[in-house]
Design brief:
The complex is a heterodimer. By secondary structure, chain A is an alpha/beta fold. Chain A is built from 24 helices and 12 strands. A 6-stranded mixed β-sheet of chain A has the order 8-9-10-5-11-12, with helices on both faces. In chain A, strands 4-3-6-7 form a 4-stranded antiparallel β-sheet, covered by helices on one side. The two termini of chain A are 47 Å apart. Chain B has one domain: Orthogonal Bundle (ABC transporter involved in vitamin B12 uptake, BtuC). Chain B is built from 12 helices and no strands. Chain B has helices at 2-30, 36-54, 59-86, 93-113, 133-155, 157-167, 169-174, 179-200, 202-205, 211-226, 231-252, 254-271. The chains are: A alpha/beta, B mainly alpha.
Amino acid sequence: MEMPAAQLHLSRAKVLGWMSLSGATLPFLLLLVVGAAFPFFGGSYWSLIATRACVYWVLVSGLNLVVGFAGQIAIGWVALLTLGAYTTSVLVAGNATPPLPPYLALAIAGAVGAAFGLIVGLPALRLRTFYFAITTLGFATIVTQVALAWQSVTGGGVGVAGPIFPEPFSSPTGLYYFCFGLAAICTWMTANVAASRFGRALIAIRDAEVAAEACGIVKAALLTAVFLFSGAVAAVAGGLFAALQSYITPDAFTLDLSVLFFIAILIGGRSSILGPLLGIILLTVLPEFAAPLVAWSTFLYAALLLAIVLAIPGGIAELLDFRNRRPLESDRAIIPRPELLARLLDAPTRLGALTLEQVSLSFGGVHAIDGLDLEIRPSRVHGLIGPNGSGKTTTLNVISGYYAQQRGAVRFGGTTLPVFARERRAHMRIARTFQTPRIVGSASVLQNVMIGGTIDGKGTFVESLLSLPRHRRDEAKLRDTATLALAAVGLERLAAVRADRLQHSELRFIEIARALMLRPAYLLLDEPAAGLSAEEIKRLGAFLLAIAEAGTGVLVVEHHPDLIFDICHHVTVLNLGKKLASGTPAEIRSHREVVNAYLGG
Amino acid sequence: MVESIVLSGLAIGCIYALIGITYNVMFSASRVFSFTAGTLGMAGGVLGSLFIAQMGLPFAAGFLLALAGGAGLGIVTEIVAVRPVLKSLDQHLYVLSTLALALMVQQFTAIKWGTDARPFPRLFDLAHGDFDQRFWLPMAACAAVIVGLELLYRRTLIGRAFLAIAEDTYAARALGLPERSLRMTSFALAGVIGALAGFAGGEMLLAFFGNAPMLTFYGFIPVALGGMGNNRGAVVAGLLLGLFQQAANFLVGGIFASVAVFTVFIIVLLIRPEGLVGASLQRRV
């Protein structure tokens, strides 16, 4: 009798998902209609402004993935606009090569932009935020200086003529439609990425990097794709910019432009497409209404940036998010439905036990773990207890690859797990949760759970950009699985709610649902009962037992003796990094040293 | 020729080092890198030129007023751009808030002072030629700041309180140190040092609003290479940077010299993100 109920929930979630999708597309369709009709009612001056807004958006749409989604503070992105503008213009003018046709030149500029996007962006993998911001700033200054100095090619301070695209795009209206078309395509492509596993992975890297790693998300690969794309569209925008200006000099590419792009994204709101789009329209149009203030525009943008950072860090997107202002029910109970686990976990392949052999790790002079042996088996719940500082969480971090042990090995089946390779654990179906739930607060509950299944997607980044069939199949499958996982932990009714509106106990269950997305062979939980009520702990215990019955090996690090003794098949007690005792719950309960040291008489 | 490269390299290196120290003083008090560091240097030059050349004040008065202006700007930075975001969960907000403030000051200067570089007054008339005062004034300022900071940190109570805050904010607060006013004082001090850098380097850099982003960038290199919060590292790295830049200037020309500096900076940082001196590892899980 349970299955139909679950089915009902799933289909309802699908309908809701579809409805919210059409609601979200509506503003874009409106903008598309207005934009397509604009030259007929806008007049030639305003069409020029609209062309500029489209050109800016082509750049900002890509930068939005870098800044708004991945959270990388790339300030000097104007450098790529400069690069694209000069590459296109110089190739068309034939200053260094035989003159090329404009479309070819634009395409080459895109390729050059992609390469430089990667060069400018990749330091983000190694450097702290401020360092990265400074390097992009430095790059922006240098590109302008090179444009000024390389006179034979760029014309130096005198400049170079911009490209003229052939009919039908040579007239101002034609150019508008060319830019508008590209802007529309960029909107569509970035919206596709935003709604894909790649978009969610980017947000996860931004807001919960550690959890992203545990889900198998490889930051380097993902950022590489994003920087390539963002650099390419920025350089294409540069080519369009040069055509619009009809003549370019280094003066045209001030840092003010970079600030404009950057602020449009922050005004719009992070991890939104519509917000930054409205932001760039607003910032392009606004100076036209405040002509006396034009000299002050950058000052005012900067003031606006300060105001946004201090007052509404969520930007326009958050102001427009009416759905998440409706109050939630106040007394919500989490009622997991273990019977759904069978469908979710599909009997993980038995690869044998997960074992630690003589593992040691010390921090400075402190032995966090000292020669520890441990064996965790499939279909069993294994408890790890001990006083604070006894090495429980450290053990868990060694297994999941966050710490590198100095001696000993962790083996899974016959193979030794690579040291320190935390992103690889997900591929071995080893999942974990965290002591403090690591959740993307600004994403919905369902999206958070879907992040857990990121590595199961088959489509590439490009397939997601273009919304090809494999991408759509991935997304449908991820959505179904995540809905099922949410139903299993008993939270499917909150699927569409922003995760940061939930209670602490609900976040713990979301983390478990996210971990289940990996169909884990082993599930490691770090104090899952902390902050839960007695009733919730009981339900959690039953749920963890059910997970084990479905074939998964469960390791629980915990302080609540009730939970441990209720559900564990085997318990290990640690003290000062060493095994104090090990056995069934009954044996541990009567172990004299354990009672003295830890449980208390 | 060689001595003029060395002299100008050391002089400009001293300015970079002073801006690096400005970064460090703010960082020690708040764990925040502020984009206003270079803006303070720019302000020192512009205010000096404004008070002395424009308004005709005597040297001493202009000098003190320029430093006071820097101190005021430092305090404004702390109140407007640093304090409100310190408690925020998203630790990257300070990058944006200080950037916004730096841009506001820079644009205000561009509009009110003009976008052309204006001359900085010749303060004394002591030495010319290779040993011109415009070279040794920044060096003297740098030496004075280093000695002054050493004395402040080692000999005075307030200096030790600064060190305590830099070492462990929570422990310092638990000991009853007035964290907020110490932080504000640190930012005022940073403002004085930044303005001094711009003032002493006025004859080399001129009174120009565009010095702000330039100093923000080149002044950060000594911090990145010398290690965060490490003033001696900043001086060594700053001097090396100045020499390297001037040598590259002479060998390959001004613009490709900046490309060379940038490239070397990025490569060094990628190889050693924690700088040439010092290491830091954060516990994340």
